[in-house]
From TrEMBL:
Known pathway: Purine metabolism; GMP biosynthesis; GMP from XMP (L-Gln route): step 1/1
Active site: 82, 177, 179
Lineage: superkingdom: Bacteria
Name the UniProt record assigns to this protein: GMP synthase [glutamine-hydrolyzing]
GMPS ATP-PPase domain residues: 204-403
UniProt-listed InterPro entries: Class_I_gatase-like, GATASE, GMP_synth_C, GMP_synth_GATase, GMP_synthase, GMPS_ATP_PPase_dom, NAD/GMP_synthase, Rossmann-like_a/b/a_fold
An example Gene Ontology molecular-function term: GMP synthase (glutamine-hydrolyzing) activity
Length: 535
Protein backbone atom coordinates (compact mmCIF):
# COMPACT_ATOMS: atom_id res chain seq x y z
CA UNK A 1 0.00 0.00 0.00
CA UNK A 2 1.43 3.38 -0.83
CA UNK A 3 0.89 6.26 1.54
CA UNK A 4 1.01 9.96 0.94
CA UNK A 5 4.37 11.20 2.17
CA UNK A 6 6.23 14.33 3.04
CA UNK A 7 10.00 14.72 2.79
CA UNK A 8 11.64 16.79 5.51
CA UNK A 9 15.14 17.98 4.68
CA UNK A 10 17.20 18.59 7.80
CA UNK A 11 19.67 21.46 7.88
CA UNK A 12 20.67 20.63 11.44
CA UNK A 13 18.08 22.37 13.60
CA UNK A 14 17.62 20.82 17.05
CA UNK A 15 13.84 20.83 16.50
CA UNK A 16 13.62 19.16 13.08
CA UNK A 17 12.17 16.09 14.75
CA UNK A 18 9.25 18.17 15.95
CA UNK A 19 8.32 18.98 12.36
CA UNK A 20 8.03 15.26 11.69
CA UNK A 21 5.98 14.70 14.84
CA UNK A 22 3.53 17.44 13.89
CA UNK A 23 3.12 16.04 10.38
CA UNK A 24 2.55 12.56 11.81
CA UNK A 25 0.00 13.99 14.23
CA UNK A 26 -1.88 15.06 11.12
CA UNK A 27 -1.74 11.33 10.19
CA UNK A 28 0.51 11.89 7.22
CA UNK A 29 3.65 9.76 6.80
CA UNK A 30 6.93 11.66 6.59
CA UNK A 31 10.66 11.05 6.79
CA UNK A 32 13.59 13.23 7.80
CA UNK A 33 16.70 13.14 5.60
CA UNK A 34 19.88 15.21 5.57
CA UNK A 35 19.71 18.35 3.45
CA UNK A 36 22.57 17.18 1.25
CA UNK A 37 20.80 14.19 -0.33
CA UNK A 38 21.12 13.95 -4.11
CA UNK A 39 18.68 15.23 -6.68
CA UNK A 40 18.01 11.63 -7.65
CA UNK A 41 17.10 10.78 -4.10
CA UNK A 42 14.65 13.66 -3.96
CA UNK A 43 13.04 12.61 -7.25
CA UNK A 44 12.75 8.96 -6.28
CA UNK A 45 11.30 9.78 -2.89
CA UNK A 46 8.22 11.08 -4.76
CA UNK A 47 7.01 13.28 -1.94
CA UNK A 48 3.66 15.01 -1.93
CA UNK A 49 5.44 17.97 -0.39
CA UNK A 50 8.83 18.98 0.95
CA UNK A 51 9.68 20.86 4.15
CA UNK A 52 13.04 22.57 4.70
CA UNK A 53 14.08 22.81 8.36
CA UNK A 54 15.93 25.49 10.30
CA UNK A 55 19.65 25.55 11.06
CA UNK A 56 22.16 27.42 13.18
CA UNK A 57 24.00 28.57 10.04
CA UNK A 58 23.58 31.68 7.92
CA UNK A 59 23.02 31.43 4.18
CA UNK A 60 25.51 34.22 3.40
CA UNK A 61 28.44 32.40 5.00
CA UNK A 62 31.04 31.01 2.64
CA UNK A 63 30.17 27.32 2.72
CA UNK A 64 26.54 26.79 3.47
CA UNK A 65 24.01 24.08 2.90
CA UNK A 66 21.52 24.50 0.12
CA UNK A 67 18.47 22.49 -0.77
CA UNK A 68 19.02 20.19 -3.78
CA UNK A 69 17.87 22.29 -6.74
CA UNK A 70 15.37 19.58 -7.73
CA UNK A 71 13.30 20.54 -4.69
CA UNK A 72 12.20 23.63 -6.59
CA UNK A 73 11.85 21.92 -9.95
CA UNK A 74 9.62 18.94 -9.26
CA UNK A 75 6.39 20.89 -9.14
CA UNK A 76 5.61 19.80 -5.55
CA UNK A 77 4.73 22.23 -2.76
CA UNK A 78 7.64 23.36 -0.57
CA UNK A 79 7.58 24.90 2.90
CA UNK A 80 10.71 26.59 4.24
CA UNK A 81 11.08 27.15 7.97
CA UNK A 82 13.56 29.74 9.32
CA UNK A 83 16.88 28.81 7.65
CA UNK A 84 14.71 26.85 5.22
CA UNK A 85 12.97 30.11 4.31
CA UNK A 86 16.28 31.92 3.98
CA UNK A 87 17.82 29.35 1.67
CA UNK A 88 14.65 29.20 -0.40
CA UNK A 89 14.77 32.98 -0.78
CA UNK A 90 18.42 32.97 -1.75
CA UNK A 91 18.22 29.97 -4.10
CA UNK A 92 15.27 31.49 -5.94
CA UNK A 93 16.87 34.91 -6.41
CA UNK A 94 15.87 36.88 -3.29
CA UNK A 95 18.18 38.38 -0.71
CA UNK A 96 19.04 37.53 2.91
CA UNK A 97 20.93 39.76 5.32
CA UNK A 98 22.00 39.77 8.94
CA UNK A 99 19.46 41.73 10.95
CA UNK A 100 20.53 44.36 13.45
CA UNK A 101 18.47 42.68 16.16
CA UNK A 102 18.04 39.04 17.01
CA UNK A 103 14.43 38.03 17.51
CA UNK A 104 14.15 35.23 20.02
CA UNK A 105 10.98 33.97 21.67
CA UNK A 106 7.38 35.14 21.41
CA UNK A 107 6.41 37.49 18.61
CA UNK A 108 3.24 38.55 16.89
CA UNK A 109 2.97 38.80 13.15
CA UNK A 110 0.23 40.35 11.05
CA UNK A 111 -1.18 38.09 8.37
CA UNK A 112 -1.32 39.79 4.97
CA UNK A 113 -3.30 38.85 1.90
CA UNK A 114 -5.21 35.60 2.08
CA UNK A 115 -2.63 32.88 1.99
CA UNK A 116 -3.77 29.26 1.94
CA UNK A 117 -1.15 28.64 4.65
CA UNK A 118 -2.95 30.83 7.19
CA UNK A 119 -6.55 30.09 6.22
CA UNK A 120 -8.76 30.65 9.31
CA UNK A 121 -5.70 31.11 11.51
CA UNK A 122 -5.72 34.12 13.78
CA UNK A 123 -5.05 34.67 17.49
CA UNK A 124 -6.13 38.32 17.76
CA UNK A 125 -6.95 41.38 15.68
CA UNK A 126 -5.28 44.79 15.79
CA UNK A 127 -6.96 48.21 15.89
CA UNK A 128 -7.42 48.18 12.11
CA UNK A 129 -9.04 44.77 12.24
CA UNK A 130 -6.08 42.88 10.74
CA UNK A 131 -5.49 39.32 11.91
CA UNK A 132 -2.57 38.75 14.27
CA UNK A 133 -0.83 35.43 14.82
CA UNK A 134 1.25 34.45 17.89
CA UNK A 135 4.47 32.81 16.83
CA UNK A 136 7.85 31.73 18.18
CA UNK A 137 10.94 33.19 16.55
CA UNK A 138 14.59 32.28 16.76
CA UNK A 139 16.66 34.12 14.20
CA UNK A 140 19.17 36.87 13.55
CA UNK A 141 19.08 36.91 9.74
CA UNK A 142 16.16 37.85 7.57
CA UNK A 143 14.91 37.89 4.03
CA UNK A 144 15.18 41.46 2.77
CA UNK A 145 14.22 40.97 -0.86
CA UNK A 146 11.57 38.62 -2.19
CA UNK A 147 12.37 36.25 -5.03
CA UNK A 148 10.29 36.84 -8.17
CA UNK A 149 6.77 35.54 -7.95
CA UNK A 150 6.59 35.83 -4.14
CA UNK A 151 4.38 38.01 -1.91
CA UNK A 152 4.66 38.85 1.76
CA UNK A 153 2.04 36.87 3.69
CA UNK A 154 3.01 37.94 7.23
CA UNK A 155 5.09 40.68 8.77
CA UNK A 156 5.96 42.62 11.90
CA UNK A 157 8.16 45.62 12.65
CA UNK A 158 11.37 43.66 13.24
CA UNK A 159 10.84 41.29 10.35
CA UNK A 160 8.85 42.86 7.51
CA UNK A 161 9.10 39.63 5.53
CA UNK A 162 8.10 37.21 8.30
CA UNK A 163 6.45 34.84 5.83
CA UNK A 164 6.29 34.73 2.06
CA UNK A 165 4.58 32.70 -0.62
CA UNK A 166 4.41 32.08 -4.32
CA UNK A 167 0.90 30.63 -4.27
CA UNK A 168 1.00 29.65 -7.95
CA UNK A 169 4.09 27.44 -7.52
CA UNK A 170 2.95 26.44 -4.00
CA UNK A 171 6.15 27.66 -2.39
CA UNK A 172 5.68 28.87 1.20
CA UNK A 173 8.12 30.02 3.83
CA UNK A 174 7.93 31.25 7.40
CA UNK A 175 10.65 32.92 9.45
CA UNK A 176 9.08 31.60 12.68
CA UNK A 177 8.78 28.00 13.90
CA UNK A 178 5.33 26.43 13.45
CA UNK A 179 6.67 23.10 14.76
CA UNK A 180 7.14 24.29 18.36
CA UNK A 181 4.07 24.45 20.57
CA UNK A 182 4.77 28.10 21.49
CA UNK A 183 3.45 28.94 18.02
CA UNK A 184 -0.07 28.34 19.17
CA UNK A 185 -1.58 27.53 15.81
CA UNK A 186 1.56 25.93 14.44
CA UNK A 187 -0.09 22.53 14.14
CA UNK A 188 -2.94 24.13 12.17
CA UNK A 189 -0.45 25.83 9.83
CA UNK A 190 1.39 22.60 9.17
CA UNK A 191 -1.95 20.93 8.51
CA UNK A 192 -2.86 23.66 6.02
CA UNK A 193 0.39 22.94 4.23
CA UNK A 194 0.29 19.17 4.36
CA UNK A 195 -3.43 18.48 3.96
CA UNK A 196 -4.67 21.45 1.89
CA UNK A 197 -1.70 22.64 -0.10
CA UNK A 198 0.05 19.28 -0.66
CA UNK A 199 -3.29 17.43 -0.65
CA UNK A 200 -1.65 14.58 1.24
CA UNK A 201 -4.07 11.91 2.46
CA UNK A 202 -4.26 11.50 6.26
CA UNK A 203 -3.83 7.76 5.88
CA UNK A 204 -1.17 7.04 8.51
CA UNK A 205 -3.32 5.36 11.15
CA UNK A 206 -1.92 2.76 13.55
CA UNK A 207 -4.95 0.43 13.62
CA UNK A 208 -4.72 0.10 9.83
CA UNK A 209 -0.95 -0.06 9.91
CA UNK A 210 -0.92 -3.48 11.63
CA UNK A 211 -1.98 -5.41 8.53
CA UNK A 212 0.64 -3.66 6.44
CA UNK A 213 3.40 -4.16 9.03
CA UNK A 214 2.53 -7.84 9.49
CA UNK A 215 2.74 -8.43 5.74
CA UNK A 216 6.10 -6.65 5.58
CA UNK A 217 7.55 -8.71 8.44
CA UNK A 218 6.34 -11.96 6.86
CA UNK A 219 7.92 -11.04 3.56
CA UNK A 220 11.18 -10.00 5.19
CA UNK A 221 11.57 -13.03 7.46
CA UNK A 222 10.16 -15.83 5.30
CA UNK A 223 10.70 -19.12 7.13
CA UNK A 224 13.77 -17.98 9.07
CA UNK A 225 13.92 -17.50 12.82
CA UNK A 226 14.07 -14.33 14.86
CA UNK A 227 15.29 -13.50 18.32
CA UNK A 228 14.11 -10.26 19.86
CA UNK A 229 15.68 -8.23 22.65
CA UNK A 230 12.82 -7.84 25.05
CA UNK A 231 13.30 -5.31 27.85
CA UNK A 232 9.83 -5.13 29.32
CA UNK A 233 9.71 -1.53 28.10
CA UNK A 234 7.11 -0.16 25.75
CA UNK A 235 8.94 -0.41 22.45
CA UNK A 236 10.24 -3.95 22.58
CA UNK A 237 6.97 -5.25 24.02
CA UNK A 238 5.02 -3.73 21.15
CA UNK A 239 7.60 -5.00 18.65
CA UNK A 240 7.30 -8.50 20.15
CA UNK A 241 3.50 -8.47 19.92
CA UNK A 242 3.63 -7.26 16.32
CA UNK A 243 6.28 -9.74 15.19
CA UNK A 244 4.56 -12.58 17.00
CA UNK A 245 1.38 -11.75 15.15
CA UNK A 246 3.31 -11.99 11.89
CA UNK A 247 5.45 -15.10 12.40
CA UNK A 248 4.23 -16.84 15.56
CA UNK A 249 6.68 -19.44 16.89
CA UNK A 250 9.50 -18.38 14.60
CA UNK A 251 10.03 -15.67 17.24
CA UNK A 252 11.96 -16.18 20.48
CA UNK A 253 12.31 -13.25 22.90
CA UNK A 254 15.48 -12.81 24.94
CA UNK A 255 15.30 -10.74 28.09
CA UNK A 256 18.75 -9.78 29.35
CA UNK A 257 19.35 -9.10 33.03
CA UNK A 258 22.59 -7.12 33.04
CA UNK A 259 22.45 -6.43 36.74
CA UNK A 260 21.54 -2.83 36.01
CA UNK A 261 17.80 -3.23 36.00
CA UNK A 262 15.39 -1.74 38.52
CA UNK A 263 14.69 -3.63 41.75
CA UNK A 264 12.87 -6.92 41.01
CA UNK A 265 12.43 -5.82 37.39
CA UNK A 266 13.50 -9.24 36.09
CA UNK A 267 10.78 -11.15 37.91
CA UNK A 268 8.22 -8.46 37.11
CA UNK A 269 8.92 -8.55 33.41
CA UNK A 270 8.72 -12.34 33.25
CA UNK A 271 5.45 -12.25 35.18
CA UNK A 272 4.03 -9.47 33.04
CA UNK A 273 4.68 -11.46 29.89
CA UNK A 274 3.47 -14.80 31.12
CA UNK A 275 0.02 -15.15 29.70
CA UNK A 276 -0.08 -11.71 28.10
CA UNK A 277 2.35 -12.05 25.29
CA UNK A 278 2.08 -15.43 23.67
CA UNK A 279 5.64 -15.52 22.42
CA UNK A 280 8.37 -17.57 24.06
CA UNK A 281 10.61 -15.59 26.43
CA UNK A 282 14.09 -16.67 27.59
CA UNK A 283 15.65 -14.89 30.56
CA UNK A 284 19.43 -14.57 30.54
CA UNK A 285 21.35 -13.60 33.66
CA UNK A 286 24.40 -11.77 32.34
CA UNK A 287 25.24 -9.70 35.41
CA UNK A 288 28.78 -11.00 35.75
CA UNK A 289 29.51 -10.54 32.08
CA UNK A 290 28.38 -6.90 32.00
CA UNK A 291 29.95 -5.99 35.32
CA UNK A 292 33.36 -7.34 34.40
CA UNK A 293 33.37 -5.48 31.08
CA UNK A 294 32.35 -2.25 32.79
CA UNK A 295 34.91 -2.44 35.58
CA UNK A 296 37.21 0.55 35.60
CA UNK A 297 35.32 2.43 32.86
CA UNK A 298 33.91 5.84 33.76
CA UNK A 299 33.40 7.70 30.47
CA UNK A 300 29.67 7.83 29.62
CA UNK A 301 30.07 7.20 25.89
CA UNK A 302 32.51 4.35 26.53
CA UNK A 303 30.04 2.78 28.98
CA UNK A 304 27.23 3.05 26.42
CA UNK A 305 29.34 1.41 23.72
CA UNK A 306 30.33 -1.46 26.02
CA UNK A 307 26.76 -2.11 27.07
CA UNK A 308 25.57 -2.01 23.43
CA UNK A 309 28.28 -4.49 22.43
CA UNK A 310 27.56 -6.86 25.33
CA UNK A 311 23.86 -6.91 24.47
CA UNK A 312 24.79 -8.09 21.00
CA UNK A 313 27.15 -10.74 22.38
CA UNK A 314 24.31 -12.13 24.48
CA UNK A 315 21.89 -12.06 21.54
CA UNK A 316 24.38 -13.84 19.28
CA UNK A 317 25.06 -16.51 21.87
CA UNK A 318 21.33 -17.09 22.35
CA UNK A 319 20.75 -17.26 18.62
CA UNK A 320 23.37 -20.01 18.36
CA UNK A 321 22.05 -21.85 21.42
CA UNK A 322 18.60 -22.09 19.87
CA UNK A 323 20.01 -24.20 17.11
CA UNK A 324 21.88 -26.49 19.48
CA UNK A 325 18.86 -26.87 21.73
CA UNK A 326 17.47 -29.84 19.83
CA UNK A 327 13.97 -28.37 19.91
CA UNK A 328 13.61 -28.19 16.17
CA UNK A 329 14.99 -24.65 15.91
CA UNK A 330 17.19 -23.82 12.95
CA UNK A 331 18.95 -21.03 14.80
CA UNK A 332 18.03 -17.38 14.50
CA UNK A 333 19.27 -15.31 11.59
CA UNK A 334 17.43 -12.13 12.55
CA UNK A 335 17.82 -9.90 15.58
CA UNK A 336 14.70 -7.86 16.28
CA UNK A 337 14.79 -4.74 18.44
CA UNK A 338 12.27 -2.17 19.58
CA UNK A 339 14.22 0.65 17.98
CA UNK A 340 12.00 3.65 17.29
CA UNK A 341 12.48 6.72 15.11
CA UNK A 342 13.80 9.09 17.80
CA UNK A 343 16.53 6.52 18.65
CA UNK A 344 17.63 6.66 15.05
CA UNK A 345 17.50 10.42 14.80
CA UNK A 346 19.18 11.14 18.11
CA UNK A 347 22.03 8.81 17.34
CA UNK A 348 22.72 10.82 14.24
CA UNK A 349 21.23 8.28 11.85
CA UNK A 350 19.01 10.64 9.92
CA UNK A 351 20.62 13.96 10.68
CA UNK A 352 22.78 15.98 8.42
CA UNK A 353 26.50 15.78 9.12
CA UNK A 354 26.35 19.11 10.87
CA UNK A 355 24.14 18.19 13.80
CA UNK A 356 26.09 16.94 16.79
CA UNK A 357 25.45 13.57 18.43
CA UNK A 358 24.57 14.12 22.07
CA UNK A 359 24.36 10.47 23.17
CA UNK A 360 24.75 7.14 21.43
CA UNK A 361 21.68 5.10 22.23
CA UNK A 362 22.86 1.60 23.02
CA UNK A 363 20.71 0.01 20.35
CA UNK A 364 21.72 2.27 17.46
CA UNK A 365 25.02 4.15 17.79
CA UNK A 366 26.25 1.46 20.17
CA UNK A 367 25.87 -1.49 17.76
CA UNK A 368 29.12 -3.11 16.64
CA UNK A 369 29.89 -3.10 12.93
CA UNK A 370 30.02 -6.87 12.51
CA UNK A 371 26.65 -7.90 13.86
CA UNK A 372 26.42 -11.29 12.20
CA UNK A 373 22.62 -11.14 12.37
CA UNK A 374 20.18 -9.34 10.12
CA UNK A 375 18.26 -6.56 11.86
CA UNK A 376 14.50 -6.55 12.08
CA UNK A 377 13.20 -3.28 13.47
CA UNK A 378 9.54 -2.90 12.60
CA UNK A 379 9.07 0.24 14.72
CA UNK A 380 12.02 2.10 13.26
CA UNK A 381 9.79 4.67 11.54
CA UNK A 382 7.46 5.32 14.46
CA UNK A 383 7.36 7.88 17.23
CA UNK A 384 6.63 6.83 20.82
CA UNK A 385 3.01 7.94 20.83
CA UNK A 386 2.47 5.97 17.62
CA UNK A 387 4.09 2.92 19.19
CA UNK A 388 1.73 3.22 22.17
CA UNK A 389 -1.26 3.54 19.85
CA UNK A 390 -0.07 0.46 17.99
CA UNK A 391 0.38 -1.46 21.27
CA UNK A 392 -3.18 -0.73 22.31
CA UNK A 393 -4.42 -1.71 18.84
CA UNK A 394 -2.51 -5.01 19.23
CA UNK A 395 -4.34 -5.66 22.47
CA UNK A 396 -1.51 -5.06 24.95
CA UNK A 397 -2.67 -3.88 28.38
CA UNK A 398 -2.61 -0.12 28.97
CA UNK A 399 -0.35 -0.32 32.04
CA UNK A 400 2.30 -2.00 29.92
CA UNK A 401 1.98 0.45 27.08
CA UNK A 402 2.00 3.52 29.34
CA UNK A 403 4.99 2.59 31.54
CA UNK A 404 7.72 5.18 31.90
CA UNK A 405 10.52 4.45 29.44
CA UNK A 406 13.65 2.83 30.85
CA UNK A 407 16.92 3.13 28.91
CA UNK A 408 18.60 -0.05 27.74
CA UNK A 409 21.86 0.75 29.57
CA UNK A 410 19.69 1.03 32.66
CA UNK A 411 21.36 1.97 35.91
CA UNK A 412 24.62 1.94 33.95
CA UNK A 413 23.93 5.54 32.95
CA UNK A 414 22.36 6.45 36.29
CA UNK A 415 25.45 5.56 38.31
CA UNK A 416 27.80 8.40 37.47
CA UNK A 417 31.27 7.33 36.47
CA UNK A 418 32.43 3.80 37.18
CA UNK A 419 29.68 1.23 37.65
CA UNK A 420 30.01 -0.94 40.72
CA UNK A 421 27.73 -3.70 41.91
CA UNK A 422 27.61 -2.11 45.37
CA UNK A 423 26.32 1.18 43.89
CA UNK A 424 23.74 -0.61 41.76
CA UNK A 425 22.28 -2.38 44.79
CA UNK A 426 21.94 0.88 46.73
CA UNK A 427 20.47 2.69 43.76
CA UNK A 428 17.91 -0.05 43.06
CA UNK A 429 16.50 0.26 46.56
CA UNK A 430 16.42 4.06 46.59
CA UNK A 431 14.79 4.13 43.18
CA UNK A 432 12.14 1.60 44.17
CA UNK A 433 11.11 3.84 47.08
CA UNK A 434 10.81 6.87 44.81
CA UNK A 435 8.69 5.04 42.23
CA UNK A 436 6.51 3.45 44.90
CA UNK A 437 5.72 6.85 46.42
CA UNK A 438 4.98 8.35 43.00
CA UNK A 439 2.54 5.52 42.33
CA UNK A 440 0.89 5.87 45.74
CA UNK A 441 0.50 9.63 45.85
CA UNK A 442 -2.58 11.07 44.17
CA UNK A 443 -2.75 14.71 43.15
CA UNK A 444 -6.03 16.10 44.49
CA UNK A 445 -6.53 18.51 41.61
CA UNK A 446 -6.38 15.96 38.80
CA UNK A 447 -7.15 12.75 40.66
CA UNK A 448 -4.13 11.16 38.97
CA UNK A 449 -1.09 9.60 40.62
CA UNK A 450 2.21 11.44 40.34
CA UNK A 451 3.53 8.46 38.37
CA UNK A 452 0.96 9.21 35.69
CA UNK A 453 1.54 12.95 35.94
CA UNK A 454 5.23 12.56 35.16
CA UNK A 455 6.67 11.20 31.92
CA UNK A 456 9.76 9.66 33.44
CA UNK A 457 11.10 9.49 36.98
CA UNK A 458 14.14 7.80 38.50
CA UNK A 459 16.99 8.09 40.94
CA UNK A 460 20.62 8.83 40.12
CA UNK A 461 23.58 7.62 42.15
CA UNK A 462 26.34 10.13 42.85
CA UNK A 463 29.59 8.48 43.90
CA UNK A 464 30.48 11.24 46.34
CA UNK A 465 30.22 11.11 50.09
CA UNK A 466 28.94 13.75 52.43
CA UNK A 467 28.67 14.01 56.19
CA UNK A 468 25.43 13.47 58.05
CA UNK A 469 24.19 12.83 61.53
CA UNK A 470 21.89 9.93 62.31
CA UNK A 471 20.79 9.09 65.81
CA UNK A 472 23.73 10.51 67.66
CA UNK A 473 26.28 9.19 65.27
CA UNK A 474 28.17 10.64 62.37
CA UNK A 475 27.55 9.24 58.90
CA UNK A 476 29.73 9.64 55.85
CA UNK A 477 27.70 8.22 52.99
CA UNK A 478 26.60 8.57 49.37
CA UNK A 479 24.17 11.02 47.74
CA UNK A 480 21.31 10.24 45.38
CA UNK A 481 19.45 12.69 43.15
CA UNK A 482 15.77 12.32 42.30
CA UNK A 483 14.83 13.15 38.73
CA UNK A 484 11.27 13.52 37.46
CA UNK A 485 10.32 15.18 34.19
CA UNK A 486 7.27 16.11 32.21
CA UNK A 487 7.56 15.93 28.45
CA UNK A 488 5.58 14.82 25.45
CA UNK A 489 8.47 13.91 23.19
CA UNK A 490 11.59 13.49 25.40
CA UNK A 491 13.34 16.00 23.14
CA UNK A 492 12.64 18.84 25.54
CA UNK A 493 11.46 18.40 29.10
CA UNK A 494 10.49 20.34 32.22
CA UNK A 495 11.43 19.16 35.70
CA UNK A 496 8.27 18.03 37.46
CA UNK A 497 6.92 20.28 40.20
CA UNK A 498 6.42 17.47 42.68
CA UNK A 499 4.79 18.45 45.97
CA UNK A 500 7.27 19.16 48.80
CA UNK A 501 5.41 16.70 51.00
CA UNK A 502 6.06 13.93 48.47
CA UNK A 503 9.73 14.85 48.07
CA UNK A 504 10.07 15.01 51.86
CA UNK A 505 8.57 11.58 52.32
CA UNK A 506 10.76 10.00 49.65
CA UNK A 507 13.89 11.59 51.13
CA UNK A 508 13.01 10.39 54.61
CA UNK A 509 12.33 6.87 53.51
CA UNK A 510 15.48 6.58 51.41
CA UNK A 511 17.75 7.85 54.17
CA UNK A 512 16.08 5.69 56.79
CA UNK A 513 15.71 2.53 54.77
CA UNK A 514 18.79 2.46 52.56
CA UNK A 515 21.90 2.26 54.68
CA UNK A 516 24.76 3.84 52.77
CA UNK A 517 22.82 6.88 51.55
CA UNK A 518 22.52 9.90 53.83
CA UNK A 519 21.53 12.70 51.47
CA UNK A 520 18.86 13.15 48.79
CA UNK A 521 18.68 16.05 46.35
CA UNK A 522 16.12 16.98 43.68
CA UNK A 523 17.22 17.78 40.14
CA UNK A 524 15.59 21.00 38.92
CA UNK A 525 17.17 21.25 35.48
CA UNK A 526 15.21 21.34 32.27
CA UNK A 527 16.16 19.80 28.93
CA UNK A 528 17.79 21.70 27.35
CA UNK A 529 20.22 22.68 28.76
CA UNK A 530 20.47 19.46 30.79
CA UNK A 531 19.44 16.07 29.40
CA UNK A 532 16.96 13.73 31.09
CA UNK A 533 19.50 11.07 32.03
CA UNK A 534 22.65 12.28 33.73
CA UNK A 535 24.93 10.42 31.34
N1 LIG B 1 17.28 -5.75 29.23
C1 LIG B 1 17.12 -5.92 27.91
N2 LIG B 1 17.06 -7.16 27.36
C2 LIG B 1 16.90 -7.32 26.05
N3 LIG B 1 16.81 -6.32 25.17
C3 LIG B 1 16.86 -5.06 25.64
C4 LIG B 1 17.02 -4.80 27.03
N4 LIG B 1 17.03 -3.45 27.19
C5 LIG B 1 16.89 -2.90 25.97
N5 LIG B 1 16.79 -3.85 25.01
C6 LIG B 1 16.63 -3.67 23.56
O1 LIG B 1 16.99 -2.33 23.19
C7 LIG B 1 15.89 -1.67 22.60
C8 LIG B 1 15.87 -0.20 22.94
O2 LIG B 1 15.62 0.02 24.31
P1 LIG B 1 14.59 1.13 24.74
O3 LIG B 1 14.69 1.34 26.21
O4 LIG B 1 14.76 2.29 23.83
O5 LIG B 1 13.20 0.50 24.36
P2 LIG B 1 12.21 -0.33 25.26
O6 LIG B 1 12.89 -0.76 26.49
O7 LIG B 1 11.63 -1.40 24.42
O8 LIG B 1 11.07 0.69 25.56
P3 LIG B 1 11.08 1.93 26.57
O9 LIG B 1 11.60 3.09 25.76
O10 LIG B 1 9.67 2.07 26.95
O11 LIG B 1 11.97 1.60 27.71
C9 LIG B 1 14.68 -2.42 23.15
O12 LIG B 1 13.57 -2.22 22.33
C10 LIG B 1 15.19 -3.84 23.16
O13 LIG B 1 15.11 -4.42 21.89
O1 LIG C 1 16.97 2.73 25.32
C1 LIG C 1 17.65 3.71 25.52
N1 LIG C 1 18.96 3.59 25.32
C2 LIG C 1 19.83 4.56 25.57
O2 LIG C 1 21.03 4.39 25.37
C3 LIG C 1 19.26 5.79 26.07
N2 LIG C 1 19.80 6.98 26.45
C4 LIG C 1 18.76 7.78 26.84
N3 LIG C 1 17.61 7.14 26.73
C5 LIG C 1 16.26 7.67 27.00
O3 LIG C 1 16.00 8.68 26.05
C6 LIG C 1 15.25 9.76 26.61
C7 LIG C 1 16.01 11.06 26.44
O4 LIG C 1 17.14 10.99 27.26
P1 LIG C 1 18.23 12.12 27.38
O5 LIG C 1 17.51 13.42 27.58
O6 LIG C 1 19.05 11.74 28.56
O7 LIG C 1 19.01 12.09 26.09
C8 LIG C 1 15.02 9.37 28.06
O8 LIG C 1 13.75 8.77 28.13
C9 LIG C 1 16.13 8.39 28.34
O9 LIG C 1 15.79 7.47 29.37
C10 LIG C 1 17.88 5.91 26.25
N4 LIG C 1 17.09 4.87 25.96
N1 LIG D 1 16.75 28.90 13.50
C1 LIG D 1 17.21 29.20 12.30
O1 LIG D 1 16.95 28.52 11.31
C2 LIG D 1 18.14 30.39 12.25
C3 LIG D 1 18.64 30.68 10.87
C4 LIG D 1 19.70 31.78 10.80
N2 LIG D 1 20.97 31.33 11.31
C5 LIG D 1 19.23 33.00 11.60
O2 LIG D 1 19.74 33.26 12.68
O3 LIG D 1 18.39 33.72 11.10
MG1 LIG E 1 13.74 0.51 27.68
Amino acid sequence: MSHSKILILDFGSQVTQLIARRVREAHVYCEIHPCDVSDDFVKQFAADGIILSGSHASVYEEETDKAPQSVFELGVPVLGICYGMQTMAQQLGGKVEAGSKREFGYAQVRARGHSALFRDIQDATNAEGHGLIDVWMSHGDKVTELPTGFNVIASNDTTPIAAMADESRKFYAVQFHPEVTHTRQGQAMLERFVLDICAAKPDWIMGDYITEAVAKIKAQVGDEEVILGLSGGVDSSVAAALIHRAIGDQLTCVFVDHGLLRLNEGDMVMEMFAGRLHAKVIRVDATEQFMSKLAGVSDPEAKRKIIGAEFVEVFKAEAAKLKASGTGHKGATFLAQGTIYPDVIESGGAKSKKAVTIKSHHNVGGLPEQLGLKLLEPLRDLFKDEVRELGVALGLPRDMVYRHPFPGPGLGVRILGEVKREYALLLQRADAIFIEELRNTVDVETGKTWYDLTSQAFTVFLPVKSVGVMGDGRTYDYVVALRAVVTSDFMTAHWAELPYSLLGKVSNRIINEVRGINRVVYDISGKPPATIEWE
